[in-house]
Design a protein that fits this description.
With 483 residues, the protein is mainly α. It has helices at 2-14, 41-45, 48-68, 71-83, 85-89, 91-109, 125-135, 142-155, 162-182, 188-191, 193-208, 210-214, 220-225, 235-252, 257-273, 275-285, 287-298, 314-344, 347-353, 355-362, 387-409, 416-441, 445-469; strands at residues 112-113, 115-119.
Length: 483
């Protein structure tokens, strides 16, 4: 029975091999563009890697729910109980200590609040975070700290798009809910504090997993910089399977006791493994989630867990039903709300919900990650080669960005000949740079011949235009940096 009992946690941990790099929040390290159109849901649903990962995790859930009612599951539960007894008996003290250290660390580092991604130049907000850390010490003042966390999230609405802040809404409410309930007198609401914390983490993971389906191109620079993170798996299936793992394991936190505990084990292993390659930013940013997952493994107050399924045989056949419903609701909510906020709403209300994008347009620039604005979304195919092709695509996009910056920075002189050359030179140079990038990595014979022709003909045309009109001054035609 011990060998059988060990198979289920091993399967959960085995899922970690498909998604290690994905647990570093990509927005902390790379450019992003929340206002760009997401990849259509139908594109994700057409990927074989998506359904393979879904089938793998569904089998894990089905197996765990069946074994949970039998001797192997009871043995696994006993082993988890024995290994986490100390944490289960001191779960509140542990969680409060980690949260207090988290807010003190944010105060000490400065420049951000609630998460490394939310930057601030305010001198007051870091002190507010220090105050939250202090208020956690006393049980009676924890509800005040909970309210302050929600207010800090609301303050961010002045500078960041609502859709961006959705990434932190569920987690923030989970932490705030835990603090608020932990400050109440003993009773049924106080007993549900750990369940609220776990729900917050679960919903946050399920929501953030959508980025890997809707914006896979955000991960390309990350994979180019650290190609070892993909374990040699092509970019498209790697990112897709990472998204499935994150979503389904987050969903597992809401299921029966053994399923949620094993899901928490897998999630902790995945997220903690990202600390080494991504450093202290990842450690600080995910500290409260990691602590919450450890508490979920210990599973204190399990009779007040707010489970979404009964503990009898129905928990097994409800697995695929629950997964389908949860996935459909999350995907449609993500895509639908994005469409409403960025494509339907107009006027002051729209400006209120997307100040980050509005400010970028007002200043003549782009929001973080404008690198991807207006481009087709990369979702790869089964034969894509991950990091090298991703880096080449990124380099071509940089060439396009430079062209737009140079052309937008030009001032027409009224001299038609000079203005024509000033505008055409960066256009042609961008084409030359893109062709050279393709020649470094591209393998299609026809496209390579076309790229060689572009380099030859457009370089000749650039020289001809400059010779015909005279060198364009650096003030009107900035020198191109090249690839």
């Amino acid at each position: 029975m011990n060998a059988q009992a060990s198979r289920t946690p091993l399967l959960a941990l085995g899922l970690s091999t498909i998604a290690t790099a994905a647990w570093a929040h990509v927005k902390w390290f790379e450019e992003y563009e929340v206002s760009a159109d997401p990849v259509p849901i139908t594109t994700t649903l057409a990927l074989p890697a998506f359904w393979f990962a879904i089938a793998l995790v569904t089998f894990f859930f089905l197996t765990a729910t069946v074994l949970e009612r039998r001797a192997p599951g009871q043995t696994a539960t006993s082993m988890l109980d024995d290994g986490t007894r100390l944490l289960r008996d001191h779960a509140d003290a542990f969680m409060i200590a980690v949260m207090a250290a988290f807010f003190v660390a944010l105060f000490a580092v400065g420049g951000s609040y609630l998460t490394p991604d939310l930057k601030t130049e305010s001198e007051l907000l870091p002190w507010a975070q220090l105050l939250i850390g202090i208020l956690l010490i006393w049980r009676r003042t924890r509800p005040v700290a909970a309210v302050m966390i929600v207010l800090l999230w609301a303050v961010a609405l002045a500078n960041y798009d609502l859709f961006h802040l959705y990434d932190y809404l569920a987690l923030g409410l989970g932490l705030a809910g835990y603090l608020f309930l932990s400050g109440l007198k003993d009773g049924k609401w106080h007993d549900r504090r750990f369940a609220v914390l776990r729900w917050g983490i679960a919903l946050a993971l399920m929501w953030s997993s959508m980025e890997k389906f809707m914006y896979p191109q955000w991960f390309m620079p990350l994979l180019e910089e650290k190609p070892f993170l993909a374990f040699g798996i092509p970019f498209e299936p790697y990112t897709t399977m990472a998204g499935v793992a994150e979503f389904t394991l987050g969903f597992g936190l809401l299921w029966t006791s053994l399923v949620r505990r094993l899901s928490a084990v897998a999630l902790f292993a995945l997220m903690f493994s990202a600390v080494y390659p991504f450093g202290r930013i990842d450690m600080i940013g995910h500290a409260t989630i990691l602590a919450g997952l450890l508490v979920a493994i210990a599973d204190p107050m399990r009779h007040h867990a707010l489970e979404v399924t009964p503990r009898d045989h129905r928990a097994t056949w409800l697995v695929p039903v629950g997964l389908v419903i949860a996935l459909a609701v999350t995907m449609l909510s993500y895509a639908g709300q994005h469409y409403v906020i960025y494509r339907v709403l107009e006027g002051p209300f729209a400006a209120l919900l997307r100040p980050e994008s509005r400010e970028a347009v007002t200043q003549g620039g782009v929001a973080p990650g404008g690198f991807w604005r207006g481009n087709e979304h990369y979702h790869g195919d089964e034969s894509s080669t991950a990091a090298p092709e991703a880096g080449a695509s990124a380099a071509m996009m940089q060439s396009m960005d430079r062209m737009h910056v140079e052309m937008n920075g030009l001032q027409v002189t009224g001299d038609l000949d000079r203005d024509f050359v000033a505008l055409m030179v960066p256009h042609h140079q961008s084409g030359v740079d893109m062709a050279r990038v393709y020649l470094e990595s591209g393998t299609d014979p026809e496209l390579r011949r076309l790229a060689e022709q572009i380099v030859s003909s457009q370089e000749a045309e650039i020289g001809h235009m400059k010779a015909e009109v005279g060198e364009v001054s650096s003030a009107t035609a900035p020198a191109h940096a090249g690839h």
